[in-house]
Write a structure and sequence with these properties.
2 copies of one chain form a homodimer. Chain A is α+β, with helices and mostly antiparallel strands. The first copy, chain A, has helices at residues 20-32, 35-42, 46-59, 81-109; strands at 5-12, 15-18, 65-67, 77-79. Chain A has a single domain, classed as Arc Repressor Mutant, subunit A, CATH 1.10.10. In chain A, strand 1 (5-12) and strand 2 form a beta hairpin. The model of chain A has no long low-confidence stretch (mean pLDDT 93). The A-B interface holds A 2-13, 17-18, 58-61, 82, 85-86, 89-90, 92-93, 96-97, 99-101, 104-105, 107-109, 111-115 and B 2-13, 17-18, 58-61, 82, 85-86, 89-90, 92-93, 96-97, 99-101, 104-105, 107-109, 111-115.
């Protein structure tokens, strides 16, 4: 079975405010309670995760992730209420888009080589 | 203004049967009448373009691009009727998905930092 993939990205200035990787990272931070544990879960460096969080926080009106004081890697991090809202809206976009094309995607898939 | 980007990919076996780059390449080949001119227009190597065409042709039931005989780079190429159908269906998917999320995307964009 071929499952069509839809990737949605919301650009802002020269950054991507939110996209597939950032949304997954937000969820990983929410689950693990820190940027470093979220990064590990995603298989990315702490620096890379921090850069993505920084891009999100700078792109939106309010921070999506708040960090506790206590050193660069020390304190925990959590997804703010605002961050939860952005994440839910983003996941909703993915779902709406996916449902909207379901039947047309099936028609296109029918033109694929049988496996 | 932030315009949300939607990228749709249809996987088949270990390949992507069609996605944004392949669709653009199909159009470039259609316009230019050859794989090498299409590749040039897309800023990619002939080999890369040929690999993408090969992946498309192998993934679908019928070829999307047919090449005239006359040497590897020599003959022209054209998008088959079947290729046109796949391309139109793919562009339609993009349009449906984009329209389906328009109002929700605007609501998400409203949460971005004003510029």
């Amino acid at each position: 079975m071929s499952t069509i993939s839809i990737k949605i990205r919301l650009p802002h200035q020269h950054l991507v405010a939110i996209g597939p990787g950032k949304a997954d990272l937000l969820e990983a931070i929410g689950r693990s309670g820190s940027i470093s544990a979220g990064a590990r879960e995603m298989g990315m460096s702490y620096k890379r995760a921090w850069d993505l969080v920084d891009a999100m926080n700078k792109s939106f009106r309010q921070p999506l992730v708040s960090t506790a004081t206590g050193g660069s890697h020390g304190g925990g991090a959590k997804v703010t209420e605002f961050g939860q809202e952005v994440l839910e809206r983003y996941r909703q976009l993915e779902q709406i888009a996916s449902q909207s094309i379901a039947s047309e995607a099936q028609a296109l898939s029918a033109l694929l080589q049988p496996v």
